[in-house]
Design goal:
alpha+beta; two-stranded antiparallel ribbon; elongated; disordered C terminus
Amino acid sequence: MGELATGAHTKYKIRYHYVWIVKYRRELLREKGRAEEFLKILREIAERYGYVIDTVGTDGDHVHVFCGAAPKESPARIANVLKSITGRELLRRLPGLRKELWGAEFWGDGYYVGTIGDGVTEESVRQYIENQGKDDGHGKYEQMRMFKL
């Protein structure tokens, strides 16, 4: 996942760190085979939607997913796809889970998402933007003017 991906007229490397919880923070992914089934479903989703799953982890009551996707995919859509399909498929493939959850939802509401870069920090982006338009061999024109808010 460390390389640039190519799409129609684009090159990109967009990666996200997602975290979401099992409904009621139940430790349902600790039991043998459940986390493996979750991972299998994630791989199927990635293949179907063109996502790149890098790393997945769980301690039983929540999951971390480090993945990438094309720029046309919003972080919210990725989360919706990952959560809805994995939840539905886990309940379908492992019928005993439904009894442990008192209903038809596997995941709790909401999630965390953060973007991940290759050594790119908030400060490096600020400095890059602030240095635009300064004399650095671009000639006598300015690329961008900086506005302070």
